[in-house]
């Protein structure tokens, strides 16, 4: 994104979560990424998972349709240390302490949460349905096809997008966003936030500048990782030379509002109150909605606003591991965590 002022809210939250989880993870099998932005990644063991509130993980394990969320492999899993318990196991996205999907399931899979009438009223759920995670939206395109992009959660007639440490709501090229059938009907394009995006395309190896020696060198145990890192640097340099292309900011919001409109649903974003940048991005997109009905059916909440309506044990878990507490309350300090966790 070009020309935008970047605030450090996401980086600050990532740092806090890394520090908290470094203490919290002592009781559970885990590894820590080896880079300047450390991430704790937890491994399951004997029916438990350090990244999850125990009752929530038990409920997930008992529901195959919920457990399928663990099939999604961690995008940077190859760069992480091997699991100590099962070195052959591949890291999953839900193993990461930074995963917004894991936070979402920790909250809504915990016993009694989805049954709470108060919470259902807050979320706008007026039936007896249960949450579905990784729901495939069907957003109509101009060519008659459907965009079946995955949505974090669907609960009754409510679509939910969960956010934690993600930097933004993504940017997409103008041609992609304007290809949705109902785009002009739902949004005033002149009011939507714009962005400039680097053009990216798959290139043949011969297009990448050869900046390395072809002399034979003895292999090492880290040879594969070194090669991947070196190749990534070469690709990054090539990407930096690509032209800018006009696009839209807040793509995930735009797409999910269109999904809600197409399916006669409501839409809710849940983010951390320590991320005012995400709240601002929400309002930038919603001001472009043409009809008041669309704006009324869309809302934004924080994880902190949900805390007063959650079970006490879950609240303690969210406090220690995420620093998420009810509005007006102060999260446990790192020293306090040391004492509470022994």
Which key phrases capture this entry?
single chain; 342 residues; alpha+beta; 2 domains; five-stranded mixed β-sheet; three-stranded antiparallel β-sheet; 14 helices; 14 strands; globular; disordered N terminus
Poorly predicted tracts of residues? 1-5, 206-217
Structural class: alpha+beta
- By DSSP, the count of extended strands is 14
Helical content, roughly?
Answer: 25-40%
Ends: how far apart? 45 Å
User: How large a portion of the residues is in β-strands, by DSSP E?
Assistant: 15-25%
Lateral arrangement of strands in the main beta sheet: 5-8-9-13-14
Q: Give the ordered list of helices and strands.
A: HEEEEHHHHEEEEEEHHEHEHEHHEHHH
Describe the largest sheet: 5 strands, mixed
How many whole angstroms does the radius of gyration measure? 22 Å
Question: Mean pLDDT score, rounded?
Answer: 88
Total count of domains: 2
Helix count, per DSSP? 14
Overall shape: globular
Topology (SSEs and partners):
Blueprint: H1 9-24, E1 30-32, E2 40-42, E3 44-45, E4 48-49, H2 54-61, H3 64-67, H4 100-108, H5 117-123, E5 132-136, E6 139-140, E7 146-147, E8 150-155, E9 158-162, E10 171-173, H6 174-177, H7 183-186, E11 194-198, H8 223-240, E12 244-249, H9 251-262, E13 266-271, H10 276-286, H11 292-296, E14 298-302, H12 303-306, H13 312-322, H14 334-341
Parallel strand pairs: 9-13, 13-14
Antiparallel strand pairs: 1-2, 3-4, 5-8, 6-7, 8-9, 10-12, 11-12
Helix pairs in contact: 1-14
